[in-house]
Amino acid sequence: MDEQNLDFIYKLGINLRKNFKIEISYEAKKLQKHLQNADNKGAKIFLCLGENEMKNHQIWYKNFITKTEKNINLDDLQKELDNE
Description:
Blueprint: H1 3-16, H2 31-40, E1 45-48, H3 51-55, E2 58-63, E3 69-73, H4 77-82
Antiparallel strand pairs: 1-2, 2-3
């Protein structure tokens, strides 16, 4: 992932921290490992923003409670999280 995308993710994280407890991981490991770590830490929601998501201006969303998985337009992310 290039520096511009990493800056975007960092700024998104700072913005989300205003209202939510979040953790950001830049580690290049399999999605399953990231999901396991989030579940082990008691996360309710998992967000993944990779290169494909960046190209489509979307973020992958998983709710650990309802087991809902979907792609969300980045412009709609705050609204989606407020509805949780």
